[in-house]
Amino acid sequence: LKSAVRQGESRITELQLYRKVQPDGWFLALQEGKPAGMVGATNYKTLAYVGMMAVHQEYQRQGIGLALMQHILAWLANRSVPLVLLDASDKGRPLYEKLGFNAYDPTYVMRRCDILPPNQLSPHAQIVTVQDPDVLFGYDRHVFGADRSRLLRALFNAFPGRVFLVRDERGLMAGYLFAQESRIGPWVAESPKYADILLQAALSLPYQGAVSLVVPEVNRDGIDLLRRSGFEIARINRHMGKGNSTSPIERRKIYGQTSLAVG
Q: Most buried by CB count within 10 Å: which residue of 138, 158, 188, 217?
């Protein structure tokens, strides 16, 4: 994976987390016994997300990426998943189009590289404990269009004390945010007002290096909010889907995905 994306930092901690969520959904391609490529999928039953499709530089342009994608699509088809989603780079997009994926709206990777003093924690955002996440799971299911409680519970365990929620004037759930070690997301909110409260809570925490997140282009309010908070667009991917149904995700309420890999 490091070779394919040509970045020095390890992704092993992130990969271990996703394998806990979907232990049977990650595959390695071998060439003469050596690791040559990888891909993974998280199955949410009503939809699946494919990510971390990568081929080692030494083995690129040999059909390994195509073989990996054909394998994982067959694996998902055997589990009767009706819709497969991913966020494609410009380099990967031709392969996915060849496999029948349709291009939707762009997805932005945004990053804030400057190290600013943490904000004071907003009194309107509540830290969520691992013992009381059920209301958050239900709210997320409504926005994401699928049950991803396995993923959210794993994130609770991985980042204790770094999960916030906000309620509206009636006491109803209006949004939540997970602050990972160097990434914000998943982050879902009913409106920019509640998204801003959650973001200020997230920025009250320390991070390891630059802070990044993944936001759909259709959420213009989210992009404007992030720009006002010092974030800039680092790169643009393309949201794509394959299947016989449209995406149930309310992407205008998605202010930050978990990552490009798992939605």
A: 188
Residues in contact with 108: Cβ distance below 8 Å, sequence separation at least 6, in sequence order: 214, 215, 216, 217, 223, 233, 235, 236, 237
Residue with tokens 């997009």: 93
Spatial contact of 120 and 205, defined as CB atoms under 8 Å apart: no
Is the pTM above the cut of 0.90? yes
Q: Which two tokens stand for residue 76?
A: 């998902």
State residue 26 phi and psi, 5-degree precision.
-125, 135
Rounded distance between C-alpha atoms, residue 208 and residue 183, angstroms: 9
101 three-class SS: coil
- The Cα-based distances of 74 to 18, 173, 224 in angstroms read 20, 38, 39
Q: How far apart are CA 170 and CA 219, in angstroms?
A: 25
Q: Give the pLDDT score at 252.
A: 97
Contact 204, 220 (CB under 8 A): no
The C-alpha torsion from 52 through 58 and 63 to 65, rounded to 10°, is 0
Phi, psi at 192, each rounded to 5° = -60, -30
The H-or-E segment that residue 150 falls in is helix 149-158
- Regions of the chain where pLDDT drops below 70: 6-8, 115-123, 130-131
Q: CA neighbours within 13 Å on the CB side: how many for 182?
A: 13
3-state DSSP call for residue 160?
Answer: coil
